Request: fold
Amino acid sequence: MDGQALKSLQAAASSFSRGRLDDAAQLCNKVVASYPESVEALHLLALINRRKGDFTEAERLFRDCLALAPRRADIRANLGNLLVAGGLLPDAIDEYRQALQCDPAFRPARIALARQLNATGQHDAALAEATQLTEADAKDAEAWVARGVALRAKNELDEAEEAYRMAIRLKPDYAVAHHNLGALLAQTSRSEEALDELDKSESLGVRGPELAYNRASALMGTFEFDAAEKTLVDSIHAGRPSLESLRMLARLRYMRGSDDYVDEFRDAIAAAPDDVSLRVGLGQILSAAGQLDEAEAVFLEARDRNPSFAPVFTGLAGVYQEAGEFEKAVQNARAGAAAAPQDDQPTDMMIDALLSLGEAQEAMTLIAPKRVQHPFNQYYIATEATAARLLGDPRYEYLYDYERLVRPYELEAPAGWSSMQAFQEDLIPKLNERHRFHAQPLDQSLRAGTQTPRGLLADPDPVIKAFIGALSAPIEQYREQIGFDEKHPMRSRNRGSTHMTGCWSVRLRRGGYHVNHVHSEGWLSSAYYVSVPPEVQDSDAKSGWIKFGEPRYPVPGATAEKYVQPHAGMLVLFPSYMWHGTMPIHGDEPRMTIAFDAVTASKG
Reply:
């Protein structure tokens, strides 16, 4: 390249950096006309076209560059960035990996790879890439954030929090780190701290629906329901609605007893009738609210618009499963699995429906590989036990050893209280203050009752904190009693420290109960009885009793096998994978409980 062409290329680069894209393109084209194999000129021209929004021409130019210089990591990384902007994330990930093969030390490719692995749900791989970056440079704040995103997705929340805080220590004005930390704090019910971090992120320039979603979540934790609702509504009306914000708004309004809980959903669909994901979201909300006919109609409309969209079939399968139409549920679950073979949800729906049809052997063929892929997934352990039960396989008794694994305890009064009765007299009003909704959450097992909107683990009230502290002794006693068995999915993890992952209170009113369920995030689960109505004394009706062994949906030959009669002050501990629910209460006196999930440091 002669001196004049080199000056033109330098001028083009200068114009590009100042945003004078037409001038930069004109200079670059002159260089390319004389030197058509100039990689630098083609590369800059590709960047110019990307900035101008001509992705097709930009991609062509990037690929022309790579045909001439296939080992250029920077060009491959920039092509990956273009593919991300076009929504082609798997292709972008391939380009980033190839860039790192060319130059393993090229940081822009590795940080971009970590981010896109997180975006596509490949969190273990993302964590490996981000960790490699932080080990190479412990002051890489962006890598610490990518590491935090992966850890949070893996439910390693303490480690995720530390990663975000490290990023902030390194770069105090890092807006994304403040936002992500705020989201995590909202998730862990540290609502006041969450709002502080979210305010900081907004002051540093963060905007948009994700900020609104996380702020609303934190506001619900501080019982500011009007402010939470306004935050969501303002965000939804400000631009293209976020599906997650629409869902949160619908759930919040439903729990507040509003009849208009899906109005914004319907408005969003009217404004974007071809957005099938909005229809699926509405169908899911209606189905969860028990409006099965309406939900079916919404899913069928979505299917007519996009007959290859897997969530449509999963949604229909769920509707039919709830309605007891198990053959239809299987058919739609199969269609969903065919459309999205990497998605677990259609397979899960198929397992439920097959068990309801009594097709235990076929269900087991689906469960077995999932148990290998996800050895501590509580749902797959539960369905394996149910299928084994139908097949007469002794593994059922091994997994559902009720006498060993379901254990009641009498909670002892915390320090500062003379008796459990005195402690209960202080605890009950504290919990009543926190039950401020009118209806149950739409995504929980609860029916005809309320759940506290904020988890209790981070609650600053001394009475609540005393209750949490009083759980340590029975948890350790339980662990001693169940023992260790390296082949058992529960007992093999019975080593290392115990960590509580969630704690909440439920209050049932007349007709209230829990549908049968498992706790997906736990290892050990619980029910502590704060107050029970007199009707629990009736051993024939068993009103308000907790039951074990009966699956979420009807399965022939699989009714409840274990019942526990509750009384105030009793704590029942059991494996998180064990199907459990409650018998409805029928009187006017409520039944109030506290539940928690815990895990151990061991993964087996």
User: Anything to note?
Assistant: The longest strand covers residues 498-514. The chain is about 60% helix and 10% strand. Residues 403-600 form a domain with the Jelly Rolls fold (CATH 2.60.120.620). The first helix runs from residue 3 to 17.
